[in-house]
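Following up on my earlier message about nicotinamide-adenine-dinucleotide. Here are the inputs again, as you asked, copied directly from the submission form:
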Amino acid sequence: MRDLLLELSRRPAARALVRRLGLPLPLPQVLERTREPYGERPLEGRRILVGGALRGEVGAVLARSLFAAGADVVANRRAQVFEGPAEAWARRLDPLEALAEGEHVDGLVFDGTGLEDPAALRWLYDFFHPNLGRLRPCGRVVLLGRPATSAASPAAGAAKRALEGFVRSLAKEIGRRGSTAQLLVVEEGAEPRLPAALRFFLGARSAFVTAQSVPITTKARAAADDRAARPLEGRVALVTGAARGIGAATVEQLATEGAKVVCLDRPEDEALCAEVARAHDGVVMLQDLAESDAPDRVADALAVLGGADVIVHNAGVTRDKTLARMSPAQWELVLAVNLAAVVRLTERVLERELLRDGGRVVCLSSVAGIAGNFGQTNYAASKAGVIGYVQALAPLLADRGITVNAVAPGFIETRLTGAMPVAIREVARRLSALGQGGRPEDVAQLVTFLATPGAQGVTGALLRVCGGAFVGA
Ligand code: NAD
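Thanks, got it. Here's what our run produced:
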């Protein structure tokens, strides 16, 4: 679906004209994205300014991972963790020194794990205030914190939780320039699980993910190595609703990272589904998930393939009506496909031991499931139910190294949103930090990250890919 403001934004002459005439048009920033496969050095050439405590295990992992990913690091002169074996680990600045006039950075990283009382929060201001203006468009901000629940005192709890409010607000301020901000909440002991998250959230793959608080935990038992390149080599992934939209984009990215993908969609979408599967060397599975025997049939087919490592529950439908006008069939279908099928299929696959240790379950929720939406009582109930399911299932599978997460897209340009009335569509696009809709591949990027071995620390989480939509938590 065309976005005229975004198209205008792509033309420098049009941007300049809008600025000269002082037109009140919020021209969104064209986002930088990548379709390149995962590589060893995704941050090659990116200048990252690092500040904060930079001590202990967090600091050491940060230094090692930024260096290994190819970043050009500028760090605080006192940050000893950057005095590694390689001399070129970082360029040094004095603690309160800002970058030189005209010098730009691609990312700002702040280690806030040492913030133990409200007075210490002043560090945030001292680091970000002088340097924020140096962040170039489509830049990245990543803060590292600790869970407030593990705080040694109530005052420490206050300081830890303050980071979340800071990040969510900063994301809104920098979104107009296409930049994003996230908080990685690192449990004690989960530091070795940080590198893949740093690569993802500091790179171009997280273009439409912003204002998220991402838990990095020790909950799921370690299962496999974090390989930066071809992380899904040799794995089998099932994607439901694979014929189009977010599902088709997910098939493409999982396959690009080495997975053999089983593409499931309804029998009436055979031609489209087969096309997607053929393009990515996948396998077609035709099944209407609303049918009562669907879980058995899918499990039978997976058994023939020897089981799966990744399951992406993406198939979804809407049947919008106010509750007063909604037919029983509209209620039933949405709950059956979006929620009951997710629960029943997962249960059957687990009962029959078809999901391997170290596996991944990713469920598509929605911002509507967080905030609710007029005319979507059925849809929002189903998508909120998915979040509850993920939170309850994750601890049960943690011992086997299996992670279970929910991804909540906001406004993504697909046929689902293309069917909206024009005015509502326009408002939905603009009411977000990034001021535009996302693309199916933006959701696919987050799903693929969660499917990789490197995302072992993220489980039971709800992550939004919504461009910082103003609705919902
Ligand atoms: P889409 O309509 O383009 O694709 C959904 C796919 O699911 C289709 O190929 C469809 O045939 C398949 N499907 C539907 N019912 C099925 C059934 N009974 N059995 C098997 N397959 C079935 O939708 P999309 O925009 O790509 O959305 C994908 C997921 O993301 C959905 O769960 C949706 O609720 C969620 N989501 C999308 C958006 C958005 O803005 N597009 C926002 C929030 C959440």
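One observation from looking it over: The radius of gyration is 22 Å. Hope that helps, and feel free to reply on this thread.
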